[in-house]
């Protein structure tokens, strides 16, 4: 077989007896992609239909079928690449290799290749695609309102994500439900009311991130992924708190108007940083102390395990809240004033809410004291008073960790809703 | 002030609307401006061209030939798709039909598309005759006259042809080469049942037709704008993909000669 001397061949494929619609087009199209306009692909084939089929296909695909020569049952086909770019995108990257941590691959190490470049401000329109992918032109312009890194980011965000995914647990399996046994009626009533209250709060903690996830530019993937783990956590908390209220002869308690008002105000902020500050730093932060208190004084191992596991999850949410507040405060000098204004505005809005509410407070006292006897109530009352002190002291510490000085932190903590979250 | 150019196209598919809306918008941005109207069939569109209701007709080859015949050759082709230049038809045969050359078609059943389709009926039969196979005498024709008036644009008859061959109802069949290429690309061709037997000589397919009397100063800017559409431009690509081309080219007309002969020979009005 002789080949025309004038045709330099830049790519070659041996199709053996493969038919055009049996897969040959995959190789032909991909090899032509790798050429520049005017370069030539040579296809060797033993299949008698291939030459005619490729001739027809080339016309449709915008390539030039140069020539087919046939000898001894084999054909050599020459195709010249046309001007058409099959995909209107930059070439994808190649040769990227994340380091290993033992047997695993960790998000902390995925800032590599094009994926490593995180802009302070994401492009105006985004794509539902990983950062660093070669984006084809002509796609839809999807607008995301969270485009500034300081509006969503936190240091160590990848580490928090890995912790979150590796700490997942199952509400049906990982709580010792089989140990649940009848309690004193007053104690069970208190447990049921507290579980109802906890579940109410977790609805807010679920719905707040839910309102923002869809607004996060996928450029800041880590934030969207981390918040989705937060949502899964909160869903599980709602599940186990509700199950506990329903599981032991009591039932769901009262969802008080004051609690509902306090929680509804968390849904108001349109700015993620403010919403996160109110919810995660102040609200969930306070919740950590509440859950630790409930764990310590739990009347049974089932309730204790529920509170312990929920507290571990909440601790991650609080860490993210503080880390994000710190990031924002450092990036934006006006953020401190916006945060404190938001705390003041919320306090003003909630000025009718003077305490956690009688039903909750009484339930906490009975729960912490272990019943309604005089000595139980005395102990419970003292423990709840100590809880309030602990909550305030720890709120101040968290606010200081986020970057506020003591006076600012103390003032903000005192303005925080008495409804805990 | 003269009104913008009014173009006619045949609504063979719902996508015709986004195609011409998109091109109208593009042409308006490019300068000359245009509007379009849709017809349900090519005969009405040719009537509208001849009566002066439209300025430009986006015609199939058969519609172009009819316009030329009715005006005594006083029409002009302006532009066409790159895919219209070297159009051809392919004859496919059942892999187990025992047909391996054109001569084997004699006395067998050949499925053909709509009688008003240049590529799925008229021209392949014309070219077969030049291979010494007389469709009337030598073949048992299985005609799929679907969507008549749309000159084969819908592909419905070609689809029926491929099904007839693949199922063994027909021994062989005729489709346009873009239809075959699309079927190959979509892996809709089962090589164990159906394969390409023969490719006809090439001919021209669609073009934008105007009457001779149409002032070139009106059509030239329109054609120039059209030719600048770029397949590597993300805004143009979806329009060009829907219309089945990679670029617009100035019209050529030599490739219509065979169709003029074919309609004469086959007595098609």
Can you describe this structure?
The complex is a heterodimer of chains A (421) and B (269). The mean pLDDT of chain A is 95. In chain A, a hairpin with a 2-residue loop joins strand 3 and strand 4. Chain A folds into two domains: 11-80, 2-Layer Sandwich (Translation Initiation Factor IF3); 149-415, Ribonucleotide Reductase, subunit A. Chain A has helices at residues 24-33, 50-61, 157-166, 185-213, 221-247, 257-264, 272-296, 301-331, 335-349, 358-369, 374-402, 406-415; strands spanning 11-14, 40-45, 64-71, 74-80, 125-126, 142-143. In chain A, strands 1-2-4-3 form a four-stranded mixed beta sheet, covered by helices on one side. Chain A has a two-stranded antiparallel sheet with strand order 5-6. With 421 residues, chain A is α+β, with helices and mostly antiparallel strands. The relative contact order of chain A is 0.09. By secondary structure, chain B is of the alpha/beta class. Chain B folds into two domains: 5-84 and 205-266, D-Maltodextrin-Binding Protein, domain 2 (3-Layer(aba) Sandwich), CATH 3.40.190; 88-199, Periplasmic binding protein-like II (D-Maltodextrin-Binding Protein, domain 2), CATH 3.40.190. Chain B is built from eleven helices and twelve strands. Chain B has helices at residues 16-30, 42-51, 61-70, 82-85, 118-130, 135-138, 156-166, 177-185, 216-227, 237-243, 257-266, and strands at 5-10, 34-39, 56-59, 75-77, 79-81, 89-94, 109-112, 140-143, 172-176, 194-199, 207-211, 248-250. In chain B, strands 2-1-3-11-4 form a five-stranded mixed beta sheet, with helices on both faces. A five-stranded mixed beta sheet of chain B has the order 8-7-9-6-10. In chain B, strands 5-12 form a two-stranded antiparallel sheet. In chain B, strand 1 (5-10), helix 1 (16-30) and strand 2 form a beta-alpha-beta unit. In chain B, helix 1 (16-30) packs across helix 10 (237-243) and helix 2 (42-51) packs parallel to helix 3 (61-70). The longest helix of chain B is centred in the N-terminal third of the chain and has 15 residues, at 16-30. Chain B starts with a strand and ends with a helix. In chain B, 48% of the residues are buried. The A-B interface holds A 19-22, 25, 49, 52-53, 55-57, 59-62, 82-85, 88, 136-138 and B 82-83, 86, 88, 90, 177-178, 180-189, 191, 195-196, 199, 231-232, 234-235, 237-238, 246-247.
